[in-house]
Amino acid sequence: MSTHSRDDAIGEANASRKPAIIFIHGLWQKPSSWDRWIEMFDAAGYAALAPGWPAEIGGASAPETIGEVAAHFARIARALDKRPALVGHSFGGLIAQILAGRRLSAATVAIDPAPFRGVLPVPDSALRSAWPVLHNPANVNRNVSLTPEESRYAVANAVPETECDALYASSQATAPGRPVFEAAANPDPWTKAQFDTETAERGPLLIISGEHDHAVPPSATRAAFERQQHNPHAVTEFARLSLRGHSLTIDHGWREVAETALRFVRRFV
Hints:
43% helix; AB_hydrolase_fold; Rossmann fold; two-stranded antiparallel sheet; Carboxylesterase_BioH; hydrolase activity; Alpha/beta fold hydrolase; AB_hydrolase_1
């Protein structure tokens, strides 16, 4: 999505006077991964947007930091007439929570979100999923691709091999390595993968977990929920979806996830 088309989408959302919702994809995905979600949420009466990350819009190359990505989506949220709902997957789920911590979300759904500071320990499967990036320190300044085998383990382990291959061919994209290193530096007090989980205006939050996710296993999503649940001012809920892996937003079972998110958003927005 170019800057022009992004601005057009914001203008159209404001002109529609419908409640807006921003979808934020994760690493190795594209904004088009949300196309079916946008169709569903538009039909439900929302003005849905799925902007790309800064490099996707501006054409910049790696590195791209968590702070830069959060600032980029914060600008989009602030350009809307009313606080939008936010739905993010993986690193997009982390970004959505960061924005909620900045009081920029009317309701947030974080799907298998990348961990923020304090979400420990890191499961072995998460380290293995991130290893294609972390094994080479030079990747901090590079865009990184997953091989089909790496994608099968980290993304599409819970679907048949034929579907895994189809998802890789249709939706796989290169991604900046720096956010993976930043998230891995979880104990660092200066990490950008942190935010105020207890702010009074965080808004309602639903964390969705895929039972068989390797990249962000249920233990990690549950730990994120338990930290977010300390917020005394806002609703915090958790949903664990059986037999689902990290590709749950784009594979054959996407509708179950989208309907779970939509039911939550409808309660508040």
